[in-house]
Amino acid sequence: MTAAMKLRRRSEAARAGVVAPPESRRAPIWDRPVPGVGRAPLWWLLGVHGGAGASTLAHVLAPAADSGRRWPGVFDRESPFVVLVARETITGLTRAHDLLRQHHSGFAGSCEVLGLITVAARPGRLPAEIRRYRDVVGSLAGQVWQIPWYEEWTLVEPEKLPIWTPGDELAPKKKRIDPLEEVPLEVRELGTDIVASVRENLDAGADFEDGAP
User: Fold this and answer.
1) What is the pLDDT of residues 103-132, one digit of tens each?
2) Of 198, 201, 190, 197, which Cα lies nearest the Cα of 56?
3) What angle in degrees, to the nearest 10, is found between the helix axes of 3-16 and 90-104?
4) The CATH number of domain 3-209, selected from 3.90.1570, 3.30.700, 1.10.1220, 3.40.50
5) CA-based nearest residue to 120, from 145, 79, 148
6) Are 96 and 69 in contact (CB under 8 A)?
7) What's the pTM?
8) Edge-to-edge strand order for the sheet containing 43-47?
């Protein structure tokens, strides 16, 4: 993100009255390149709490990597793009709200948040209270994606799950697939949306560098 873009986002947040959370409720920022990542991801998945599902999604989505519950420091040409991940619980959404407020008030370094992924905490319909709170939190996230409950994903290690790669064909939705053999349509659409968001932000950055408003 360019300096102009960063200043614009911070001024927008200030006008919207976003208040930073107390320091104890902020996520730390890496003071070195994110460890344990063997490749340069297109974007980071930041699990806002333990068990959010970031490590699982980082395996399934080939262009992504888990930032280890910290904001990347954007060292050595690391990607600045971050997508937060939270379980659909009051606790998970509250933690996501904290980190979104941290970002919008300028305490998340040079990161650019692309949106929020909420992951189902259990099978069945989403309780109305959770849905309403997710809408409130999502107003700070911009884009919000929802991942439904996949029972099969809870029965194996992430390394045994299928992987989505950009360019994989978005096959028509089937009545029934095996999530251990094929990446579900919702997850493929998620990956496609985030890749498009990264590209849009890169194009916007080029416009700012060229002096466009």
Assistant:
1) 999 999 999 999 999 999 999 999 999 999
2) 190
3) 120
4) 3.40.50
5) 148
6) no
7) 0.87
8) 64-66, 43-47, 81-87, 112-119, 143-147
